[in-house]
Design goal:
alpha+beta; single chain; 5-stranded mixed β-sheet; globular
Length: 840
């Protein structure tokens, strides 16, 4: 067996340089030509009429003592298939607020729409703009406010549909339905009740709208859950000036499993004799599920009574539907069946925690699952604040059709980023499950999108693969497994249908079982093609069966715990990066999903990413180096922005000079080598349907990496980074990347268009050792986020942190690149030159 060495955590590799990218090159706007006078008059008339109608409605309501707002909601609409200049519809100083932006289709013709709140005393703001457009010119001779006014086709009073952000058929009718009510707010959030909250609750009470007590808070937004009819939502629009949007409330489904009816007590005793539990471990996997029954003999020494809790005490702590205990078995042991079938010693390096996130019945009032998730995490942290925990959740809800953030996924981004308490957290969640249409595999996977909250930017979203193809059950002799070994599981959803601007999900895939199919296309899940785990009623039987992305998620949490236990100082961002960095696609996946596997076309690998993520993570590869394969780990900070001349602008970039084994690589000459780079960081979310462009971007900041070419000096490399930044300065509508960047080189497998999405970026460089010998500079630089654009939130001076993983691998096992590197660097942890105690 080859020797294994610790990953190299290196410090002091970077120089921080002032960096300011120039103004972005924005794609050409689609704005129609107008008859200037005619269009000016039309918009003035429409605005005046809408304002008059709003005043009439307000006066009528006041006459009968109904609540009314101090201002009006207007909807601005573009011409068909043209742009709407939404950011110029807002004026913070005058209290004019852009509430939401959405696309509307009428008979396959698309319009852009924006809903805006205008205070009662500010009606002249838009009238003046329309008048000046018709009568005045700029110094360059163009009509004033030309692009804004020409982009507006129609203005009307906003109605309920203007605020509704989900499918129209999901809107409530005469019967009340639970809805998410999103409010705008400029107040600094505190633990105490804000004026916006007080005002809204008073109005909701007058309108007999039942509210759940929990509230989600984000930058400039807060979310309530309200039980309301169509009429009550319309009344709310007329009564309250803080409404931003409405959405359908999520309904969390229960994931039921058929459990194998066998008991193997002797397996348990045999395994218990081989287990050593680290009772002093500070690492924990916190399972948010249906509860865990820790009376199971395989769990009782890993999950203490004090670590079993519930979101609400009256739910009880026990597992009421077996799913949580099944998750616990895999989170504790990884591949439990493999351990039962062999005689190796087993070291348990982590503890388990159980927080019951679902009530014992589904008849309770719905909740904002973001609030519940936050409360559950808080309970675990209050109970054992000293622990480094991996949060594991395999509860999902509705399909995420477009990839846009929800209140739940945004809450997870908020929790992981430490938005409220500056404490970063690692969250591992399931992608949801494809539960029908298996006979059409893999098309059924491609057409079934990741489920909410799997679109979270910061969480590791886990899909499923499978190696399970053996059917031993005599009753299944006419069946065959649907998926081939080492390929995508029939359970695993994808992000193929998502809009291009959203992160690629899943991040990784792990064993989730297979489906059997007969010659009539009858499909079923079965014991043979599922995973063995711990059953929630050990008095009945000790083993149960689990499959789908729940099983994958529990195993990913186990992997993360092994990394955290071996590297106590590793950040959550680092553990996330190591998991993804160690992932690989199998040949089976490439042959199924790549049209030309040997050509390594970037577009095809970008397609593969949306189906299989980065592939299957390898725990040994994440944990250890070898003589011919080295992982360098960098944990660093950066100040991305600053305020200057009353504007936000980018500030710093880091240039990392890595301790390359130059002489060894040069001696290898034309030998093929591989370098992989993974950059991981957590963004702070700013959800709300306002277009996610310009100042309304969802992420607080973005980072990018670049590597020097073999022909570049340090100075020319730095100049090129700045030049490349000009070409793709966060223009989300652009589909082109900088051709001058080395990241666009054919040496990269995925390329910038595929990897520069979300908040983790990983790519593989392949070339000769001689070329790589001089490519030891990596630049980390910021791109635009809402910290830079929204100065009123005062985040522009904040520092951020990131993790950077760089690995070099040569296929020649007798080549030592580890020792030359170790001789060049000052590592931040002791280097254990041979790993002795192998974790499970």
């Amino acid at each position: 067996m080859a020797e294994k060495f610790k990953n190299l955590f290196v410090k002091d590799t970077s120089d921080t340089l002032l960096y300011t990218s120039k103004k972005s090159i924005v794609g050409k706007l689609r704005i129609p030509a107008r008859d200037r006078i005619q269009h000016s008059t039309k918009l003035q008339n429409q605005f005046t009429q809408a304002w008059k109608d709003a005043c009439t409605i307000s006066n009528t309501r006041k006459a009968v003592s109904l609540p009314t707002k101090e201002g009006i909601y207007l909807e601005f609409k573009s011409s068909p298939e043209h742009d709407l200049i939404t950011k110029r519809l807002e004026d913070h100083k005058k209290g004019i607020k852009l509430l939401n932006v959405k696309k509307e289709k009428i008979e396959d013709i698309e319009f852009n729409c924006a809903t805006v709140f205008i205070p009662s005393s500010k009606e002249s703001h838009f009238i003046k703009k329309f008048q000046e457009y018709g009568e005045k010119n700029t110094r360059k001779g163009n009509p004033k406010h030309d692009e804004l006014v020409r982009s507006i086709e129609d203005i009307k009073l906003a109605i309920l549909e203007s605020f509704w952000q989900d499918k129209k058929e999901w809107m409530p009718g005469d019967s009340p339905l639970w809805c998410e009510i999103w409010l705008r707010t400029n107040e600094i959030e505190t633990e105490s009740e804000t004026e916006t909250e007080k005002s809204f609750k008073k109005i909701a009470n007058l309108l007999n709208i039942k509210l759940q007590k929990d509230i989600l808070k984000f930058p400039e937004r807060m979310v309530f859950l309200g039980l309301a009819t169509n009429k009550q939502l319309k009344e709310l629009i007329e009564s309250c000036e803080y409404i931003a949007e409405f959405r359908k409330a999520s309904e969390t489904p229960y994931f039921f499993m058929n459990i194998e009816n066998r008991e193997q007590v002797e397996w348990i005793n045999n395994l218990l004799d081989r287990i050593t539990v680290d009772k002093n471990s500070k690492v924990a996997i916190c399972i948010l599920d249906t509860g865990v029954n820790n009376g199971h003999p395989l769990l009782q020494n890993i999950l203490e009574d004090v670590d079993c809790q519930a979101c609400k005490k009256d739910w009880g702590y026990n597992d009421h539907h077996k799913h949580g205990t099944l998750m616990a078995g895999l989170a504790a042991y990884g591949d439990l069946q493999n351990l039962l079938e062999n005689s190796q010693k087993v070291n348990i390096l982590q503890k388990l925690e159980s927080i019951k996130i679902l009530p014992p019945t589904n008849n309770n009032d719905p909740n904002l699952y973001g609030c519940i998730t936050r409360q559950c995490v808080s309970r675990a942290e209050i109970n054992k604040p000293e622990r480094k925990r991996i949060i594991c959740m395999a509860i999902t809800t509705n399909k995420c059709e477009e990839g846009r953030p929800s209140s739940w996924s945004a809450a997870i981004d908020s929790i992981t980023s430490g938005y409220f308490d500056n404490q970063k957290r690692l969250f591992i969640i399931s992608a949801g499950n494809v539960n029908s249409g298996w006979e059409n595999y893999p098309e059924s996977n491609i057409l079934y999108p990741i489920e909410d909250p799997g679109q979270s930017w910061n969480a590791i979203t886990v899909g499923a693969c499978t190696k399970k193809i053996l059917l031993s059950d005599e009753n299944l002799k006419d069946y065959k497994p649907i998926a081939q070994s080492e390929n995508l599981s029939p359970f695993s959803p994808t992000s193929i249908l998502w809009e291009k601007k959203w992160p690629i999900k899943p991040d990784i895939i792990l064993e989730g079982g297979n489906i059997a199919k007969d010659n009539t296309n009858l499909c079923l899940d079965c014991d043979d093609l599922s995973l063995l785990s711990t059953y929630y009623k050990p008095t009945d039987r000790h083993f149960g069966i689990i499959c789908g992305t729940s099983a994958s998620t529990a195993q990913a949490a186990w992997m993360a715990a092994q990394i955290q236990a071996n590297y106590p100082d590793a950040w959550p961002e680092t553990i996330r990066a190591l998991l993804i960095h160690s992932a690989e696609w199998t040949d089976s996946m490439k042959n199924l999903f790549l049209k030309n596997p040997t050509k390594k076309l970037k577009t095809e690998y970008q397609h593969l990413l949306k189906i299989c993520g980065y592939g299957i993570p390898k725990i040994d590869k994440a944990l250890w180096c070898a003589k011919n394969s080295v992982n360098l780990v960098i944990q660093e900070e950066l100040r991305p922005y600053e305020k200057k001349d009353n504007r936000g602008r980018t500030r710093d970039m880091n240039i990392h000079e890595l301790p390359w084994p130059n002489d060894t690589l040069l001696n290898l000459g034309e030998t093929n080598v591989i370098m992989r780079i993974t950059l991981s960081y957590f963004i702070e979310p700013s959800p709300g349907e306002r277009g996610w462009k310009d100042r309304y971007r969802y992420p607080s900041y973005l980072l990018r990496f670049d590597v020097n070419k073999s022909t570049e000096t340090r100075e020319t490399f730095i100049r090129r980074i700045n030049a490349a930044a000009e070409d793709h300065e966060e223009n989300e509508d652009s589909t082109t990347s900088s051709t001058s960047s080395s990241n666009s080189s054919n040496r990269w497998l995925i390329g910038t268009q595929g990897r520069d999405l979300g908040s983790i970026h990983s790519d593989i460089w392949e070339g000769t050792a001689a070329e790589l010998a001089v490519c030891n500079l990596i630049g980390i630089y910021p791109k635009t986020g809402w910290w830079k654009e929204r100065l009123n939130l005062q985040k522009y001076n904040n520092k951020i942190r990131y993790s950077l993983i760089v690995s070099i691998t040569t296929p020649l096992e007798n080549v030592d690149i580890y020792t030359p590197i170790i001789n060049k660097i000052k590592v931040s942890i002791p280097v254990a030159i041979k790993h002795k105690a192998k974790p499970i």
